[in-house]
Specification:
Elements (H helix, E strand, L loop, with lengths): L8 E2 L5 E2 L13 H8 L19 H22 L7 H21 L4 H31 L5 H11 L9 H34 L3 H12 L4 H9 L6 H25 L1
Antiparallel strand pairs: 1-2
Helix pairs in contact: 2-3, 2-4, 3-4, 3-6, 4-6, 5-6, 6-9, 7-8, 7-9
């Protein structure tokens, strides 16, 4: 399910927040207090249903890798005229993250380690494609055979920074590492958003709202679990999922609030 398709989750006292974490927060004029007063905990909850473990989104990751390579080549072509630091890196990261995140939302795959590795590898492919294209361009222009590693060392030691500033191999290495880090950051931000949406979707909205209600009443975790157990959510694993969905939703709301500010 995509972020656009994710149904709003009612949160007592906090308006509604969609799966992307961009829904409206508390409304002015006392609406927050009114919502809290109007909410009545239901006597029953939907029967807990656990999703089967999702499979690794190989097609989405392959698409992310292909997009990274393509954008790396585009970045090289544009760099012959102008190279805009951060902009190119962030665009590649967002493209990679969107494709992998799209796969996460449809496959329901949630292995953080594997997805983080996929985002990192796909991001790396963009810079590999950029440097291979640059290498072949120089070989073609100079008609002189030069190995790829030799090319990288030469580029690192002689390539100037902004304004023609010579920063040497160490300086260029740090710049390249920073660019790669920016790309991975934007890619992972989108994948993380998809994982959060999947966590929230995995639990019925009524259950999440109930957990947030009792947490808002300053109930401790034991009491929240007791309330869930009294409404059919007695399995500790199901309760863990409900608590995680509520915590994730709160985080998404906070992030959305920070973006609005």
């Amino acid at each position: 399910m995509s972020e656009e398709e994710l149904q709003p989750v009612p949160v007592p006292g906090n308006g509604e927040v969609d799966g992307a974490g961009t829904g409206p927060g508390p409304e002015p004029g006392g609406r927050e207090a009114e919502d809290e007063e109007d909410y009545t905990p239901p006597e029953t909850l939907p029967i807990p249903e656990r999703e089967a473990p999702g499979s690794f989104p190989i097609l989405a990751v392959a698409a992310g890798a292909a997009a990274a390579v393509g954008l790396g080549l585009v970045m090289f072509g544009l760099s012959r005229f102008v190279y805009i630091y951060i902009l190119y890196n962030s665009v590649i990261g967002m493209a990679v993250g969107w494709l992998i995140g799209w796969g996460v939302e449809r496959s329901r795959y949630r292995s953080v380690g594997a997805l983080a590795a996929a985002a990192a590898v796909c991001s790396f492919l963009a810079y590999l494609a950029f440097n291979v294209a640059y290498w072949q361009y120089l070989v073609f222009e100079s008609a002189e055979k030069i190995g790829f590693l030799q090319f990288l060392l030469l580029r690192a030691s002689e390539e100037p920074f902004i304004g023609g500033l010579a920063i040497g191999a160490i300086g260029n290495g740090l710049v390249w590492l920073a660019e790669y880090g920016i790309t991975v950051y934007f890619a992972w931000a989108r994948v993380r958003g998809a994982l959060r949406a999947v966590d929230v979707e995995a639990v019925p909205a009524e259950v999440t709202a109930l957990v947030l209600h009792y947490q808002g009443e300053d109930c401790d975790e034991f009491e929240v679990r007791r309330q869930l157990a009294g409404r059919g959510w007695s399995d500790p694993e199901d309760q863990d999922r409900a608590l995680k969905a509520a915590a994730t939703l709160v985080t998404m709301m906070q992030d959305a609030g920070e973006e609005e500010d």
